[in-house]
# Entry
Amino acid sequence: MSKISLLRVGLLLLVLSTFTFAAKVKHSVWEKGLSFEQYLKKYQVPEEVLESLDGEDALLVSDVENTKRYYELIASNGVLLQALIPVGEELQLHLFKTPKAYKIEVIPVAYQKNTYVSLLSVEKSPHADIINKVKNRGLATEFTRLLKHSVNFRGIQKKDKVAIVYTQKMHLGQPIGVPNIKVAMLESRKKKHYVFKHTDGKYYNEEGKVLVQKYMKKPLNHVRITSHFTNRRFHPVLKRWKAHLGTDFGARRGTPILAAADGKVIFSGWQGGYGKVIKIQHKDGYVTLYAHQSRLKSKTGQRVTQGQVIGYVGTTGRSTGSHLHFGLYKNGRAINPMSMVKFSTGGLTGKDKRAFLNRKKKYTKIINKIFDDNMPSHVWNTVNEIAVSPEMKTYYKNRGW
Ligand SMILES: [Zn+2]
# Structure
């Protein structure tokens, strides 16, 4: 290394360290309804920074409005040096200042996925007790949603027992996304009520009958999926992280779009990459989103019923052809729309039923062991795996992290 370049490195380090010492890390909550473009304006970041993003990334940027907590590194003179803003469950926007200009990239959120087993004795109600003791509001909601079909919650008494085996993604000590309940049990008046999740993603009772009906319908009469939901994938050619926070259905311009379930339209209008878009609020904290429409047929505030025509397929916003981008959100987080849309009904038969009974046996054994050991309360790990995919390890390694 020549003297001059050494000097340059020295200068750069000096500049960086002055920044570092004078800068503060800020942990903030995203302002409701704030778009990413407005956020850039707030810090006088030129909008050209968005030009490096392609169509799919632009949709991710539109999704920033669902963000809750995010991080900023701000210099003492108020200049934004860095921002880390989660989008979806597994990716985040990384906006950062270089000596020349601002840059933006999409990078993965490092999280841990743990399997937990919880056992607790009812004091107030299963919902309140799960929040108080396990400190996981999402788990309380999911447990109630799954069990309310088979147990009369009014009959629950003190000292009734709750047992849950579930996996949960954790980031900086906080649960992210909806917990994935494998088996849940409620013992009430000496009778045990179980719910099991099968490999098809549906919940069944002990006899292998579907317990929780998926109450949403397809948003188009004829569906042809052209792009599936992904929380995170690595694009092998672009060498970049991508996500697709919805399901795309190919359909001709003008095809009627149907409300997936009863609800209230909470947004009808234009929104960034989504173009003409409608969002509907449903029960249990679900929101559906219908993007790239050619014409909107329902207004903000309007009540709609399942199957009602709310608009027409188009290609507005960041879209390369006529299609419907259908998104589903649970408590503000994008989840796979197909997990709630009903395509077929009925219980398990034949090979599927035998596979189900095997899983059921395994999980009933775990639950019974908890009871036999009489574990006092309430959470401990059974499995501890770090959910870092091999590509992600390489990615971090290449950047020297
Ligand atoms: Zn899409």
About this structure: The chain has three domains: 3-109, 112-213+345-386, 225-339.
